[in-house]
Specification:
With 532 residues, the protein is an alpha/beta fold. It contains eleven helices and 35 strands. The protein has a six-stranded antiparallel beta sheet with strand order 1-10-9-4-3-2, with no helix packed on it. Helix 1 packs across helix 9. Bound molecules: flavin-adenine dinucleotide and FE2/S2 (inorganic) cluster.
């Protein structure tokens, strides 16, 4: 997961590098005193920061400089090159900084700076009275990012995070990748240690279920009878896997995958397994298939569509993904369905039955909006929020998989199921709970991993009239641009990270519909795309 450090890559920056020979990208990786360091040119200035991203360790020299920030090539985190701070998820930890001197046409990296300058809030919360008690329901991507942003921004009131999960917030995307494949050690999974929450005064209640929200009394009710109060509330309850509605779906060898507990349950059941049936050829289904092939299990994927992921990526990339999985030994049963599971016998609509020791269903998720509905919040295919992520009840915010927000770029209401979107919404909601009044308008981004092939997707396209393919999909070096009426809606790429970042910048600058004063229209009924 983390790139292996190679302290000797590139020049010794303490000895100086020629400004005339500086790379056109404005980014140069080298080393100083045995540490890997990145020099970034922003305008006419040079800055030096840690060379690897604090998320999964991507080499930032392969990213993009935008103003005085650098964007990570792998999952689009954004750091200030001036002070190293992580400005946008999925990275949270700051990069170290070095002093830089320019003389005689050369750039020299000298001493490492103290981290003291990074300790203050990077975007201080607005002045004025702060709510004394903030409550977050959900210990996933959005809930964690909100708590982190509140404390990093200097919020000093009481902060309580309640999660039904038995574990503190974990790296959920990894559950269908390295962790399930058995190649990620346990210590990679928690987003932060127990000490981290303790040091920041974030009270974490795990394995706790919220059963009611009372907006009048500003209290919630827990299933254990407790009823803590709040001044601001963030709903970040995510989504839950849709269960199979067929005979045998409740058998102990039939699984879904959302939590660390779910994943551990699957792994425990694999001990004596030889063959697995995966129902669904979506992101989760296919990533599970890849992870289980890494464990040398026989994997069959059964799904109703003719081509995996065609609705999201189009036919060309869908065909490539199918071939990729077949090359790794996955057997597809497409345009098919499972009608029943009887012990180890998996009955198919078309064709002979399959014998499978284990079944994993990845047939989509449903946003967990029941608390909001009961509390009388406006819910319509997700919890309806304003551009600032506030629900129809003042003081209650929603973020992540449950939130349906007015997207200025498309003029549509949007709800997506992406890790980075959930985290960034959590960050924005946190600031807004303290009165920042900040609009959420990041371009959606997600990634998916199939064996050694990463796919990065930025933007959002439910329908397009033009699909421009650059490069060669089969060679795993391509950029696909999804457009409607000539306007770029989204881009997917394999091993073209800078182009993917450039597409993100282009879409960030393209806020045409709302700027033109168009009203935001309701989305189609199913606003879901993306990662499930
Ligand atoms: C296996 C897997 C792999 C994924 N891979 C990717 C990927 O590669 N890329 C990508 O972009 N996205 C991926 N996703 C999607 C991504 O994880 C989600 O979009 C993201 O987690 C949504 O964050 P969230 O905070 O909205 O919800 P979650 O992370 O699901 O968190 C919801 C939290 O709310 C809690 N909760 C719910 N109801 C209650 C209640 N009543 N009381 C108390 N607590 C409650 C839950 O216990 C949980 O802690 C993946 C998802 C899964 C399951
Ligand atoms: S490695 Fe940089 S954002 Fe993931």
């Amino acid at each position: 997961m983390t790139a292996a450090p190679d302290p000797h890559k590139g020049p010794d920056l303490a000895l100086g590098v020629s400004i005339a020979a500086f790379p056109a990208s404005g980014l140069l990786e080298g080393h100083v005193g045995g540490e890997k360091v990145l020099v970034a040119r922003s305008g006419g200035e040079y800055f030096a920061v840690t060379a690897n991203c604090s998320h999964y360790g991507a080499p930032l020299a392969d990213g993009l400089v935008v103003g005085d920030t650098v964007r990570c090539p792998w999952h689009h985190a954004c750091f200030s090159v001036r002070n190293g701070r992580a400005l946008r998820a999925p990275a949270f930890d700051a990069l170290a900084c070095w002093t830089v001197e320019c003389r005689d046409g050369e750039v020299f990296v000298t001493g490492k700076k103290s981290t003291a300058a990074q300790r203050g809030p990077d975007r201080p919360h607005p002045a004025g009275a702060q709510p004394s008690r903030i409550l977050i329901i959900g210990g996933g991507a959005a809930g964690f990012a909100a708590a982190e942003a509140l404390r990093r921004g200097g919020y000093q009131g009481k902060l309580l995070m309640i999660s039904q999960d038995a574990a503190a917030p974990v790296d959920r995307p990894n559950l269908s990748k390295d962790y399930l494949a058995g190649t990620a050690p346990e210590e990679w999974m928690p987003l932060k240690s127990a000490d981290w929450y303790h040091e920041r005064g974030i009270e974490l209640r795990l394995g706790a279920t919220v059963v009611n929200v009372d907006p009048r009394a500003r209290r919630i009710a827990l299933s254990d009878g407790n009823s803590p109060s709040y001044d601001r509330l963030l709903l970040a309850t995510g989504a839950e896997p849709i269960r199979l509605a067929i005979p045998g779906a409740d058998q102990s060898n039939v699984h879904t995958l959302r939590s660390l507990e779910d994943c551990r349950g699957i792994i425990a059941n694999l001990q004596s397994a030889r063959r697995v049936a995966v129902i669904g050829a979506s992101f989760i289904g296919l990533e599970v298939a890849a992870a289980l092939r890494a464990r040398n299990l026989e994997v069959h994927v059964i799904a109703p569509e003719k081509r995996p992921l065609e609705r999201v990526f189009g036919a060309e990339l869908g065909d490539f993904i199918r071939r990729l999985h077949e090359e790794h030994g996955v057997v597809f049963h497409l345009a098919n369905a499972v009608t029943a599971i009887e012990g180890k016998r998996v009955r198919l609509k078309d064709g002979p039955d399959l014998e499978a020791d284990l079944v994993v269903a990845g047939i989509g998720v449903r946003p967990r909006t029941e608390l909001a509905e009961k509390a009388g919040l406006r819910v319509d295919h997700g919890i309806c929020v304003s551009e600032c992520l506030e629900t129809s009840v003042p003081g209650i915010y929603a973020a992540g998989d449950i939130a349906r927000w007015p997207d200025r770029r498309s003029g549509q209401q949007r709800r997506v199921e992406h890790w980075v979107v959930a985290e960034r919404q959590g960050q924005t909601a946190a600031r807004n709970m303290l009165g920042a009044g900040e609009r959420y308008e990041d371009v959606p981004f997600f990634w998916s991993q199939h064996y050694d092939v990463p796919i990065n997707y930025v933007g959002h396209a439910e329908a397009w009239d033009e699909l421009a393919i650059e490069g060669d999909i089969a060679s795993r070096d391509c950029m696909l641009r999804y457009k409607r009426g000539g306007r770029l809606l989204a881009a997917a790429s394999i091993h073209r990270d800078v182009q993917n970042l450039q597409a993100e910048i282009a879409m960030e600058r393209d806020l045409a519909p709302a700027e033109a004063g168009h009203a935001i229209a309701p989305d189609r009924a199913d606003g879901r795309t993306g990662a499930t």
